[in-house]
Design a protein that fits this description.
This protein has 33 helices and 29 strands. With 1018 residues, the protein is of the alpha+beta class. It folds into 4 domains: 448 residues, no CATH class; 136 residues, no CATH class; 159 residues, Jelly Rolls (Sandwich); 128 residues, no CATH class. The strands form 8 sheets. Strands 7, 9, 12, 13, 15 and 16 form a 6-stranded antiparallel β-sheet that branches. The longest helix has 46 residues. The radius of gyration is 34 Å and the shape is globular.
């Protein structure tokens, strides 16, 4: 053997070294994963739940429905529980086809699977960042570990745990950067490059399948900046010296475009249905401009976003503005920037200008991510972003520009890894002037954080947080000084400080406020009542009738009736913040805030999304029950409704139950009055209590006031009250101005005397007066009807509430009087649940039709007081309606008297509805579930058109006779998307096969070369 070969390791020694290296890397990764568990121990190990933000009202409910469907062996295509029906799978935010979700849905309850995916993806983020640091950034284990810790444990990902799909997508971004490096490296073997290309396409597909399209958009823009930015810069600088300098840029752009296209093809099974939904959703024409720039990062809050809040919990309004990597992380990033200036100068002076790949791995590419993220996150405060948001697709379809901070955090993590590596190996000299500069910069940053918050929003930063910054800065400066004498020990100290900072700061993030699991899993009385009152199973055993819908108007400012019990049970186990979240969660469940009804399988009229839902026509439909300025594009009604909508809309929407709070009810003279409903009566109008429970009474209490009747003199009869006591006995009482009631807004110009003032219970108008009076009769009796009739010559008599009173015992019975429909109080607890006695069934027959040319005409026709949805349907011509008639149905006519007709739902499932119909004349069957492409219908097995009815619902024409109508959801977009995904998968397999073939050929050729070389030496 020659001297050169004697000291080379043998094959077994090389294998041992490789195994040792692998074990060391594995140990570093396991340590990162252990830290993730420590940071997230409340949800990872203690079994608690997150009861705040979108995770509680959005992701838990959606994952609960996905879990029910997958465990039942059903692909969840349709969601019948929100927005009067909406696509489920097409809503990409659920991530139905994201492969890591399915095992969790199959094996775990919804809240546990959400927690596991959070921990799993934080671990994936740490792993992928570590691998990126090792392979692409050329870092040792310590530097790569720093990258993984800073990215996965920093504030940005920790703040996004409430946005599960964003976290899932972001976890793959470092691996995306790594695989792009492999696929675009011209010096690598073609097999490696093709392997990197395949991996990049798969990861891009995973990011899209995770479901947050904005995250995918930001990731691809960041990838383009990372991969093409340095190459473009070199090409522009050297294009005059070498005309071929632009060729590497074209190659890299082609690699990126090809991988992105292939990745989108793999995700087409999700993207195509989502695209179809987006055309019919609120995002079809882009968001309103104000929404496109909402949640921008204010320059006044910029410094605060970059610094950890050690003692200041992150306010919900700023949960998107968290981007800290710790004071130690900023210091390490600053070290990397100082070091990179020297490195870049050396590169620029070198002769190897044909290798932009080497330059890309300088800090230029990473620093570009930092700057790009900060630049776009400013949003509203950035003139260029304003132009992009107005005219450029992508920017015009997303809100929350602050989410671009993801790129900044990834870049800072890489810089921190470089800085740690440089200090550990003495590659960066920490001169005193550099340390002094960092100290000044930290003081300026902290000062602007304090001043900016005060200027921008009048807030403040606590002294404990400021003290934390001071302590962290002092320790960092001391450790930086120590690197001149003991670089390795000081660098390890900086990393320990980094982890400690991130852990303490993490105590202010949502995952540290996890509360008792019962905050999500337990039933509240209102939920139990709605579940118990759902329609019973069909007697034919074919399925279940659809449970009727509800609508909620309740605020959550009430205290739960079991608040003392909650404090006794959970107080010793939870922090004050976690206990507070448990109480708020109880109130959210009591009023069934969107989308909690989905979690319990109770259909609601409204919902909450803000992504590709709700449908645009659902927003239009809201104009029937809300003023124009209160219509919400994210679908919520509960916060915007102040009064119960008109009964005809509740009936059409299949609303059987209405949930309200008791905040504006009244206790007067020891009697409870329900003031939620009420009636506004002009002369000759009357309102009757729809349901009078049996109760022996001696008096009727009435709370009322007058509106627009200030000129009426005292003693004017303004109303008549009739109380029927059974056996033909009716008591009649006169209501007089100045005696029983008076002008509500009473002033010096009122002609009559003030009535007996009961109090001030008008919502949002404290100056309003409610007057209370008692109407008595001699013999106790159980009233059967109570009618109030207005007789005042001008103005209105507003009856707020009535109660039966037994003055012998002091007991009472509140009644429900309404001019908006017939209701009865079905449940009274922390909230009230009213039953609508006039509700239409989910499916019903009508015999008159009107055809409208567009949605505006339809809305105008529906607003007409003469429109009655129970007897007339408005069909939309622009969905292919036949104006003159319908195949298989004769002319639509008035329903003749004495006809036998009914429509009965005999099977109801999300994607399939069976209805039995009997009618003696041609009719329309109206199903008040949302119309959407992909819904097909058959009548007795024969396909029929599905018409869009009353702006939003479905209808089919039926002949006279007995029929079975079946609605089935078979979206064509899903089949097209599945075909494209299969084609993308086939293309991916072809590229992978070519890569394997190239790899084997290289191995064989390498073996031949080695063998010939050995023979030559012999």
């Amino acid at each position: 053997m020659t001297q050169s070969t004697r000291h080379q390791p043998t094959g077994s020694q090389s294998a041992d070294l490789a195994v040792l290296d692998f074990l060391r890397d594995l140990l570093a990764i396991v340590l990162l994963w252990a830290l993730v568990l420590v940071f997230c121990w409340r949800i990872a190990l203690a079994g608690r739940v997150l009861a705040g933000g979108d995770i509680f009202t959005y992701f838990y409910p959606y994952w609960a429905e996905a879990t029910r469907a997958i465990q039942a062996g059903r692909l969840p295509l349709w969601n019948p529980y929100l927005f009067l029906g909406a696509p489920f799978l097409a809503n990409s935010q659920v991530g139905v086809f994201y492969p890591l979700n399915w095992p969790l849905w199959l094996l775990l309850p919804a809240h546990q699977s959400v927690h596991l995916t959070i921990v799993l993806h934080m671990c994936l983020a740490a792993l992928n960042a570590y691998l990126w640091g090792r392979a692409s950034l050329r870092l040792g284990r310590l530097g790569a570990w720093t990258v993984g810790a800073t990215f996965a444990l920093g504030g940005y990902l920790g703040a996004q745990v409430e946005h599960v799909n964003q976290l899932q997508g972001l976890a793959w971004v470092p691996l995306m950067l790594l695989l792009y490096d492999k696929g675009a490296n011209r010096k690598s073997q073609i097999a490696r490059r093709m392997g990197g290309f395949v991996g990049l396409a798969v990861v891009i597909g995973l990011v899209f399948l995770a479901g947050h399209t904005q995250t995918a958009f930001i990731s691809l823009v960041g990838l383009a900046a990372y991969g093409l930015g340095p190459t473009l810069w070199v090409s522009l600088r050297r294009s005059g010296h070498n005309p071929a300098q632009g060729w590497p840029l074209m190659q890299r752009a082609a690699t990126l475009a090809g991988a992105a296209g292939l990745g989108m093809a793999l995700a087409a099974v999700q993207l195509v249905p989502t695209w179809e939904l987006s055309r019919l959703s609120i995002r079809a024409a882009g968001l309103p401009f104000a929404d496109r720039v909402s949640f921008s990062l204010s320059p006044f809050y910029l410094a605060r976003a970059l610094l950890p809040g050690f003692a200041d919990p992150v306010p919900p309004a700023h949960i998107e503005h968290v981007a800290y990597v710790g004071v130690a992380g900023l210091a390490l990033a600053a070290v990397a920037i100082c070091k990179s200036q020297i490195a870049n100068q050396q590169i620029s002076k070198s002769a190897n200008l044909q290798s932009p790949f080497a330059i890309r791995h300088s800090s230029f590419a990473v620093f570009l991510l930092v700057i790009l993220g900060l630049f776009f996150s400013l949003g509203l405060y950035n003139p260029i972003y304003l132009l992009l948001a107005r005219f450029v697709p992508g920017f015009a379809h997303f809100r929350v520009p602050a989410r671009w901070l993801a790129l900044t955090v990834i870049g800072l993590a890489a810089l921190a890894g470089w800085g740690g590596e440089a200090l550990y190996h003495r590659r960066a000299r920490m001169e005193r002037r550099v340390i002094l500069f960092f100290a000044v910069a930290l003081v300026v940053l902290a000062g602007w954080a304090v001043v900016g918050v005060r200027i921008g929003e009048g807030g403040r930063v606590s002294w404990l947080t400021i003290a934390g910054w001071a302590a962290g800065g002092t320790l960092v400066l001391g450790l930086l000084l120590a690197t001149t004498r003991a670089p390795r020990l000081a660098t390890v100290g900086l990393l320990v400080l980094l982890v400690a900072e991130l852990f303490v700061a993490g105590l202010t993030l949502p995952y540290s406020r996890a509360t008792a699991p019962q905050a999500f899993t337990s039933l509240r009385p209102a939920i139990a009542h709605l579940l118990a009152s759902s329609s019973p199973p069909s007697p034919r055993g074919e399925g279940a009738h659809p449970p009727a819908r509800f609508i909620s108007l309740s605020d959550i400012t009430f205290d739960p009736g079991d608040l003392p019990e909650i404090r006794i049970i959970y107080g010793p186990q939870l922090s004050a913040a976690a206990l507070y979240d448990a109480v708020i969660a109880a109130k959210h469940k009591e009023v069934l805030s969107p989308n909690l009804s989905l979690a319990f399988g109770i259909p609601a009229v409204d919902g909450y999304d803000g992504g590709v839902l709700p449908l645009a026509r659902y927003v239009t439909l809201q104009r029937l029950i809300l003023p124009e300025d209160q219509v919400s594009i994210d679908g919520r009604l509960r916060e915007n409704l102040t009064t119960i909508p008109d009964g005809r809309w509740l009936n059409l929407f299949n609303v059987r139950h209405v949930i309200t709070d008791k905040l504006h009810d009244a206790w007067l003279d020891g009697v409870f009055y329900d003031l939620q409903m009420g009636a506004q009566l002009g002369c000759g109008e009357a309102a009757e209590v729809a349901h009078v429970p049996y109760f022996e009474a001696t008096a009727l209490g009435i709370v009322s006031y007058l509106r627009g009747a200030a000129t009426l003199p005292s003693g004017t009869v303004v109303g008549i009250v009739e109380v029927s006591l059974g056996e033909g006995l009716t008591r009649t009482f006169e209501l007089r101005a100045g005696q029983h009631t008076a002008e509500g807004v009473y002033g010096p110009g009122v002609a009559h005397a003030p009535g007996p003032l009961g109090g001030h219970f008008w919502p949002g108008q404290a100056e309003g007066n409610d007057y209370v009076a008692r109407l008595r009769w001699q013999e106790p009796g159980a009233p059967t009807t109570v009618v109030v009739r207005a007789t005042l010559p001008e103005g209105e008599l507003v009856v707020r509430g009535v109660s039966l009173i037994d003055e012998r015992t002091g007991s009472f019975q509140a009644l429900v009087l309404s001019d908006r429909g017939r209701f009865r109080l079905a449940h009274s607890g922390d909230v009230k649940v009213y039953e609508n006695l006039d509700v239409l069934e989910r499916a019903f027959l009508v015999y008159r039709r009107v055809v409208a040319d567009d949605d505006g005409t339809t809305l105008a026709l529906m607003r007409d007081a003469a429109f009655d949805p129970a007897v007339e349907v408005i069909l939309s011509k622009n969905e292919g309606m036949v104006v003159a008639g319908h195949a298989g149905a004769g002319p639509i006519q008035e329903q003749p008297p004495q006809t036998v007709e009914f429509a009965r739902v005999v099977h109801y499932a999300p994607e399939r509805v069976k209805i039995e119909v009997t009618t003696q004349i041609p009719a329309y069957l109206v199903l008040t579930d949302a119309w959407y492409p992909g819904w097909e219908a058959t009548v007795d097995g024969e396909p029929v058109p599905v018409y869009r009815a009353d702006l939003f619902f479905r209808a089919v024409a039926v002949r006279a006779g007995d029929h079975r109508v079946v609605f089935a959801f078979r979206p064509v977009s899903l089949r097209i998307g599945a075909g494209l995904s299969l084609a993308g998968l086939a293309g991916l397999m072809v590229v992978a096969a070519l890569a394997l073939s190239k790899g084997r050929r290289n191995v064989i050729m390498g073996g031949v070369v080695t063998e010939n070389s050995q023979e030559g030496k012999q």
